[in-house]
Amino acid sequence: MLSRIRTVPKTLALACLAALALGSQAAHAARLKVGITLHPYYSFVANIVGDRADVIPLIDADANPHGYAPQSADMIRIMSMDVLVVNGIGHDTWAFEILDAAGMRKKLVLIYANDGVSLIPVAGAPAGEKVVNPHTFISTTAAIQQVYTIARRLGEIDKANATFYRDNARKYALNIRKLRAEFDTRIAGADLSKFRCATMHSGYDYILQELGLQVTAVIEPRHGVEPTARQLAETIDRIKAAKVNVLFAEKYFASKLSDTIRQATGVRMYSISHISSGKYTPEKFIDEMRENLTTLATAINDTARGGA
Amino acid sequence: MTTAAIQQVRPAGARYEGIALGLATILVAGLLWLYVRELGQGDTREPLYDWQVSAFNALTGADQAIYNALFTAKDDVPYLYEDINMFTPDNAKFRWPSLEDFQDALLPPFYRDKSWEQNGSLQWTLYEPLAEGEMQGSTMYLGTDGRQPQQGSFLLVIGHVHAGFRNTNSMVIWWNKKNHVVMPQSGFRDGLILQGWREVVPYSGAQEVKRIFGKDTSKAEDQEQAEQAINGLFGDK
Asked: CB of A157 within 8 Å of any CB in chain B?
């Protein structure tokens, strides 16, 4: 008898657990699973969907998205997604290989984050050459445009949460704009007339243009392609002639080339994050853009004080 | 003394090999040309009317930065309009965001920060029609008198469907190469063109995707199928 009495609560508990599990499964089934290809898109989507959808990175956090070679684990991940947010304009071409290899073309809705972005050409390119710059995510305004596009498309798919996504997108956009206000405070009173910059690659064109800072020269002729000896010599001459005093290099992908240029020209070097490495977190984009803007403010203030 | 006898021996199929090699070369070159053409490796120049100007190819420096900020502001302006008029009674006049509202929202290119200064300190003014039908129902934000060399002026024209003259709401960005202009008398396209305004056309991510993939992927058959499948799960809530 005693054993039967002991069994009843156990059975009840198990039944409750089973019911909870079923309920959780049902709730899970209704949650949108949104895949992303690059770190900034993780932050964008996580801030848009909040706790109402799952965000799934397509590739491992420590993988370098430049020239990435797809892995079998990527195919398993892509098969669990309902939607995939892509850069689509040259920074995640490997995502389409994974998509095809997994046979998901007809099953996965693609959101092209850059659909509504007004693109700019790579700065510092030879005269007349207009090459599209795909680094729209290292920015504030172009980033906000992508946040709005993603939120709108997610709202079209998950109609029940459309207003929630839109409101979150707006709050997040304001937080991105606040970064610019912080930056403005840091450079208050600085004289920008002496500021002349070059960049190792074209990754920072959007943010520099948004801040009203023009790029005099870009060292790499193409993203990820080192210049030839002749191209390098010409660039060094251009840097000297234009009195460039600041060189922005990549924080995560160090290059000996930047040291060579620094030694040859005397420019002061600063590192900017490409926001493409490390753990995927909702805060990553804002945190790293804040760091980038702090670095830019330091470079501007150093130049204004005559330190560079 | 003996003379070395050199005899050239031609392979039996020499003639055919030469022809075959030539044909193969033409075939490879042709295939390469087709590959490049079909994959959309064209340039980024879109066909434009003479009253339009490309943001990507024609605008530079500060003007390009201002245009891109305005392009994103086109999304924010209606959101702010909704916020401002949320509690406005139906019989009262709804208003469009003022330049002070843009300061509160930190919205470029209107927000007066260091970047605004760097991009020429454009002076913005707002024209709101006082009554239905006035100014062809257009609200206009004019940015002019920039301090950068050769800087132009900008006009954001918001056409309202409710005010008549238009069948749809629209937001169009215009650029004038003149540094100083006054608020136009009309938001109508033809009038603006006569006064030297050019509609600015972006080179968008959607166009670049089309260039890379050779087709409009948003209308691709596979995507339509994927959308139908997902609509069954989330679309009918």
From this structure: yes
